Amino acid sequence: MKTSEKKQQKPPQKIRLDKASRQLILQYPDGDFSLPAEYLRVYSPSAEVRGHGASDGTLVTGKIHVGIEKVAAAGRYALQIFFDDGHDSGIYTWAYLRELCEEQASNWQAYLAQLESAGQGRDPDESAVKFIQ
User: Fold this and answer.
1) Which residues of the chain fall short of a pLDDT of 70?
2) Are residues 62 and 51 in contact, defined by beta-carbon separation less than 8 angstroms?
3) What b/e readout covers 67-103, taking b as 16+ CB neighbours within 10 angstroms?
């Protein structure tokens, strides 16, 4: 196993939920990461979001206001995150959380591009209107 793979499988040294800012803060020996609830929700590893096959995933929209109610250990290998919209079926392994940390900027840009392409938005109270000329 590569050193980078071992690093990714280790749990963070510290996990803190900041409900006010709707962020999960993960502290690793090589740095701290803040993951917004919306980001974690739209990248949930659940079958509901990812689907059961390679192309079955669902684009999650309208989660700009989502928060995290609580987090709980899922064995010794992961976290379960309970969101205030009722979603709680995603099990975030240590490796997946680390991947989300390291690829946050590119993942977020890809998500925004998917939303735009689908004519969807982050805010559930807004809808896109296209004017036909």
Assistant:
1) 1-8, 53-55, 127-133
2) no
3) bbeebeeeeeebbebbbebebeebbbbbebbbebbee
Our measurement of the distance from residue 67's CA atom to the centroid of its chain's CA atoms, rounded to an integer in Å, reads 11
Helices 94-102 and 104-118: crossing angle in degrees, nearest 10, is: 80
Distance CA 115, CA 55 (A): 17
**Burial per residue of 3-33, b for 16 or more beta-carbon CB atoms within 10 angstroms, e otherwise:** eeeeebeebbeeeebeeeebbbebebeeeeb
Name the DSSP letter for residue 11.
P
Question: For residue range 68-90, what is the model confidence (pLDDT) as tens digits?
Answer: 999 999 999 999 999 999 999 99
